[in-house]
Design goal:
This protein has 339 residues and is of the alpha/beta class. It is 44% helix and 18% strand. It folds into 2 domains: 7-121 and 304-320, ATPase, nucleotide binding domain (Nucleotidyltransferase, domain 5, 2-Layer Sandwich), CATH 3.30.420; 131-300, Nucleotidyltransferase, domain 5 (2-Layer Sandwich), CATH 3.30.420. The protein has 11 helices and 10 strands. A hairpin with a 3-residue loop joins strand 2 (17-24) and strand 3 (28-36). Bound molecules: 5'-O-[(R)-(carboxyoxy)(hydroxy)phosphoryl]adenosine (KG4).
Length: 339
């Protein structure tokens, strides 16, 4: 570590992962600790917000301790503490935010509030040293589906977004209905492997000339088919159904990104967020990148879903860009990208 290195401690607790990480110069992961609650929430079929907050309280300081120890640093070596302040579950966000504020209060280190969605985009910087703005990014997580124009490390513009359900929500819901349980996304992905992607057909929602999405009609068309099949006393072919449904959603997302490339002329494209782990989505984007000559990036699987390394990376770019927050920073559960 040289004197010129900027070391950021990142903290994440927006949903059901408690995480802490130390990152050097926004790009090099020195430690990356994640305590996931997913197995616990499985019994309830989804995240129970109050229980998530209580579990964050138990896990937050052990995670921070482990992250510092694994990186071989102390709080003295840290230049700033970056923490997710939104979007997410309010109680869950407040646990990470309070821990970060406490550390800043005792150490005098600056606090940097990070937009969780910007963090997902920055996961790509941790995987690809050559990647720099500007580029287009499809941000697809449990609650968001957006095409974002990343103009610089701090400046972003939303070019298109879902008008109803997020793609992740549409996948999670159908996973539950066909009996795959929680967490639906990864289970649906696994269930569809090797399936016939043309076995079932789903609605298309045309959003005119915009880059917006709509997934509620597609989800309803899947629910209607499931009900009809069950009413006839027949079985759904889970593998083929999962494959066709994810293929359909993946191609809508890829087609929209191609439209965004044509509109902007920007040919560097990234994927970000939990759903970017989806193999059908990656395949659709791989095909589109070959056909349209795009430079395509997606983070390695561990960095697709919630983690604190991406928060530390986003915090680094805010920090060196001159932005810090005071200790009155509050949680912003409905924060949008670009803010
Ligand atoms: O980004 P993330 O970890 O948390 C949010 O910020 O929302 O995303 C969680 C979402 C969930 O909907 C989860 O089912 C989905 O990412 N997900 C997947 C896969 N892995 C995680 N969806 C589809 N295929 C996957 N392999």
């Amino acid at each position: 570590m040289s004197d010129k290195d900027v070391i950021i401690l990142g903290i994440e607790s927006s949903c059901d992962e408690t995480a802490a990480s130390v990152v050097k110069n926004g790009r090099i992961i020195m430690s990356d600790i994640i305590a996931s609650q997913a197995d616990f929430h499985e019994q309830y079929g989804g995240v129970v917000p109050e229980l998530a907050s209580r579990m964050h309280v138990d896990a937050i300081y052990p995670c921070i301790d482990s992250a510092l120890k694994e990186a071989g640093v102390t709080l003295d070596d840290i230049d700033a503490v970056a923490v997710t302040y939104g979007p997410g579950l309010v109680g869950a966000l407040l646990v990470g935010l309070s821990a970060a504020k406490g550390l800043c209060a005792v150490s005098g280190k600056p606090l940097v509030g990070v937009n969780h969605l910007h963090g997902h985009i920055c996961a790509n910087y941790l995987c690809f040293p050559e990647l720099e703005p500007e580029f287009l990014c499809l941000c697809v997580s449990g609650g968001n589906t957006q095409i974002i124009h990343v103009k610089s490390y701090q400046e972003m513009e939303i070019l298109g977004k879902t008008r109803d359900d997020a793609a992740g929500e549409a996948i999670d819901k159908i996973a539950r209905v066909i009996g795959l349980g929680y967490p639906g996304g990864p289970k649906m992905d696994k269930a569809g492997q090797g399936g016939d992607v043309h076995a079932y057909e789903f609605a298309f929602n045309h959003m005119g000339d915009t880059l917006d999405f709509s997934f509620s009609g597609i989800k309803t068309s899947a629910l209607n088919q499931i009900n009809k099949i069950r009413q006839k006393g027949e079985e759904i072919d889970i593998c083929n159904f999962a494959a066709s449904y994810q293929h359909h959603i993946a191609h809508i997302l890829a087609d929209h990104m191609v439209k965004a490339v044509e509109k902007t002329g920007i040919k560097t494209v990234c994927l970000a967020g939990g759903v970017s782990a989806n193999t059908f989505l990656r395949k659709a984007f791989d095909e589109a990148s070959i056909k349209h000559d795009l430079r395509l990036y997606y983070p390695k699987l561990r960095l697709c879903t919630d983690n604190a390394a991406m928060i530390a990376s986003a915090g680094y770019y805010e920090f060196i860009g001159g932005r810090t927050d005071d200790l009155a920073l509050n949680a912003a559960p409905s924060l949008k990208a670009g803010r």
